[in-house]
Amino acid sequence: MNFLEHVAKARVLAPAGIPVPRAVHCRTPEEAGSAFAEFGPCMVKAQVPTGKRGKAGGIRAARSPEEAVEVARAILGMTIDGHAVESVLLEERAEIAREFYAAILNDTASRRPLVLFSTEGGMDIEEVAESRPEALRRHPVDLDRGFTEAEARALVSGLDLGPAAEAIPGILAALYRISGQVDAELIEVNPLALLADGRVVALDCKLTLDDSAAFRQADLAAAAAPEPMTALEREGLEQGLKFIQLDGNVGVLANGAGLTMTTMDVISHCGGRPANFLEIGGEAYTKSEAALRLVLANPGVKSLVVNFCGAFARTDVMAEGVVTAWKRLSPTVPVFFSIHGTGEDEAVRLVRDGLGVEPYDMMEDAVQAAVEAAR
Amino acid sequence: MIVYRQHARVLVQGMTGKQGSFWTEKMLACGTNVVAGVNPKRAGERHLGLPVYATAREAMAGTPFDWAVMFIPPAAARDAALDAIEAGARTVVILTEHIPARDVIAIHHAAAGHGTRIIGPNTAGIVTPGDGFVGIMPGHNGNIFQPGEVGVISRSGSLGTLICLNLTRAGIGQSAFLGIGGDPMIGTTTRDALEALDRDEATRAVVMVGEIGGAMEEEAAAYAAGMSKPVVSFIAGRASPPGKKMGHAGAIVSGAFGSYAGKRRALEAAGVAVADTPGEIPHLLRSALGAPRDAAQAVPLHA
Predict the structure, then answer these.
(1) What is the ipTM of this complex?
(2) Which of A189, A352, A354, A375 is most buried when burial is the number of CB atoms within 10 A of its CB?
């Protein structure tokens, strides 16, 4: 889950002792006008969980209370990268001397936390890695040693940090410490700025929390930015189902992420277009009735493939849910089954007796028939 | 140890729970050498005819084991895995999905220190037809698994099951099914599994099932290029919409890796035949076995 800049700064960076600019969070142009009094000249920053704010005109300067109101009003009406701007952050206008980059993330390759630091802040880190690899330092953290100020000092040694050299190791160590405390999947400060007055502050912050750790980060998780999703996707989430609505016409109901993706691949291979991704893997396999409702509620669906291959999931339990829901909903779209694995015999019997439908022997054949029926 | 053999003794952590009991019974029926279970609240009892211990360490002292398999919820998975690692398990199979990433990192760190092989997290387990299985795979179902000479590697249990079923129906048995897990930070990578099957004497050819994302298939392709055993692959996710990106710092780690096209290119450049659908795999396997890259290495499917 992702967080707005002001939440990441106020709830994570500041309590960790990482300096952030003075700021006020505002929901209306009027609030922005009165907040201006606290700052004088300031920046008005759209609060949306995307990195494309600057280029989209979501960050602008204000030099008077009137201008703060006007700029806030303009930004509050914007939609940036699919996110409607619902609030702005008024932040002291800082004169920037140097921009650095710092991030902590969970590195899948080393299976360790990874510290990244670059002297080229303010630009995309992929770009830095490409054009100035010597400006980028990476350090996979050994859990026995941790990542203290001493490690941080070693990481940045040899880099020209100017007057920021004193502050940066402490900030990196604090960033590492807090990343573990809040179960951050990614915490990125870009830019980490050296100001003309000598302060080193986090000017922006991107924070992604590990979804799997939400149970032990309940307070912070409650402050996460809502994910943009369709009404059906939200309904799926509320039912504990991972549902992604697509623009095709062949509905997909399968168990497990791998088999679901493969069913979509075969639909596409047969010249059709999948209408959704829906995973009912793991314990979710008992929710096939709710899952079927979701798939059929998608107005684009012209036919349906039900592809079950039971390993952990029992196909008889899934088939029973589908047959029950089918009778209740009485949909008119044609449905094509392929059922194998754990509970197969009973599942095939349920579908045959309950719906009068004969499952296909090969999933490719079931998919081919569904694609043709959707045409 | 990645390929399960019957002489290996298995401890089931969380054996007395609903899923633990269900799958322990299946494993035993399939011939798996399950020797004991763990549940701190029921230590000293017997369950399914096996002794129950409070911890893996106590189990190791009373009923030594080689493998541990965990039926443990996410919040308790770290401690259970560390218990098994510190007890001296050679291999720990972690079935649990949604373990916090920092806990997974701690598990891998401890495993590296003890020389423990981690399989998973979020794996469906390991099947060796004829020997048994460890995990939550239908290893007992003869329509799906039959002894043979083809090793199968898959991140996904359901897709792996479908592919083994297709092989069995085509008369192609399996030497091993290695479920390596769908999590981003897994202990046994596609390449690790491929190396294990390359060394495995019972395996004559490999089916490597991959997925979009990460760089594991590319790394495995680099290894496959030097193998004499034929390798056939299927990569799931070709038609999937681009996934949620982790952000800039995430992209730098994966670099240019992760796309379907990139994985397929790397595999084909390594001489690996890539199937468009799972149903094509048996055919590709037959032609790969009929015409290996090194003709002198030609082997019949059934010795």
Answers:
(1) 0.93
(2) A189
